[in-house]
Please model this.
Amino acid sequence: MLSLLVGLVAGGAGMAVAELIASISRSWRSPVLDVGDRIVDNVPSFLKELAISWFGTNDKIALLVGIGSLLAAFAAILGVIALRRNLMLAIAGAGLFGLIGALAALGSRTGASVSAVIPSIIGAVVVGAVLWWARRQVIGDTSTRDTLRPHASHRRRFLASLGVLSAVSVGGGLLGRRFDGRFSAEGSREEVALAQGASGPPEVPAGAQGENSAPFFTPNEDFYRIDTALTVPQIDADSWTLKISGMVDNEMELTYDDLVAKGLIESDITLTCVSILIGGDLVGNARWQGVRLDELLAEAGIQAGADQIVGRSVDGYTCGFPVAALDDGRDAMVAVTMNGEPLPLEHGFPARLVVPGIYGYASATKWLTEIELTTFDAFDSYWVPRGYAAEAPIKMQTRIDAPRGLDRIPAGEFAIGGVAWAQPLGIQQVEVSIDDGPWEPAEMSAEVNGSTWRQWTYRWNAPSGRHTVTARAIDNEGTIQTAERDEPLPDGVTGHHSVVVLVDEA
Ligand SMILES: Nc1nc2c(c(=O)[nH]1)N[C@H]1C(S)=C(S)[C@@H](COP(=O)(O)O)O[C@H]1N2
Ligand SMILES: [Mo]
Model:
């Protein structure tokens, strides 16, 4: 019991010191986050899909809780080894702790300086030192016994010291996180909002909102968030730049002001994640403002032979999509606002790519810092070596928002509602089938543009009993959404959304 406690206190003290030291320099990170990053980068894709389907947008918290639990278990074992077996072995174990942290720091996607190992190494030294001290307290330096029989008064004093040490560790750890918070970009975002005049949530275009569908514009707070970043990159708009590089005639480097001075377009675009399941919620619609990507690239001059546009993030993440995707004039942009405010930090402040019709993983680089023109042969973006498709057009989907699966509703008139998307073509019609009966057309809400989801309502006179409601869409070229089911990997789900509903006697 005591040795487990000693291990936990030693581990906690080491973590706290590492956190404190990591907070000194902007280029140093918490070892836990570094280890987490390497796990995120190396976890097999099927596991990542599983994590998203289990934890949704909380997958990061789940990962950190997992790492924390493993660390605690490891630390507790070190305590047992230190007090009951071999102190040197336990200190070596603490060294392993540090080594893993150091390697994780060096493996950073953006490349790390050698000094990035410092927090881990000092943290490990502290763990070793606490274990050594605890062993001397418990066993005494003259003794080589394995059994622990300290005097009661000595024991009380020792427990008190452990208590103080834990309290100091918790305080130090919190202070470290707090101190690290001085790198927050929230202030920069507020300045940008003041300078640009945030207009606030947009008004829904006339007739676009369905009766029982998701809100036409997804509020920023509710917008799904998917990325590999365990902590949100903090970027000052003032010192940020956007490079345009690679196979272009004129490489460019723009400041935030240069970019915005090019003039902003405004467009309603529905983002979709390749990991969305049938009927899932990794999709959201927003009004974006930004600089047209085709115009920006025309200015840079795309060289013949370039077929891939790569967006690089400050955190090392990369997206890649075809140059040819821009040929149809869709509103691809370097976006700076989302629903009438500067991009929220989690959604890419100060600038991100938004490309209608291409899944987010391949197009929607957040915390954008470079756009590189290259070829698909020459470069694989982040998810491609991890098994996702290099080209990722969004597949048509229809989602039933009401009723939800296994809802109980009273018999009689019910407005079945939902959304459908087929960016950038757009949806012509949604059809509903009850209990595998004939497909009947739904009432369509106004179409805003092909890159935005379209909402629909089907007025159903529900008879009592258990019924299955299925919906499918038809795009503006007349293609009917396939019933064939496919998984998210490697290029997005297909299949119809169905819900079972329990209708009570009226
Ligand atoms: N820098 C960075 N940008 C990224 C990602 C990422 O992991 N890192 N994930 C992409 C994925 S998979 C999706 S679906 C969209 C999600 O954008 P959102 O979080 O604003 O909804 O961002 C894309 N842009
Ligand atoms: Mo995604």
In short: The chain has a mean pLDDT of 94.
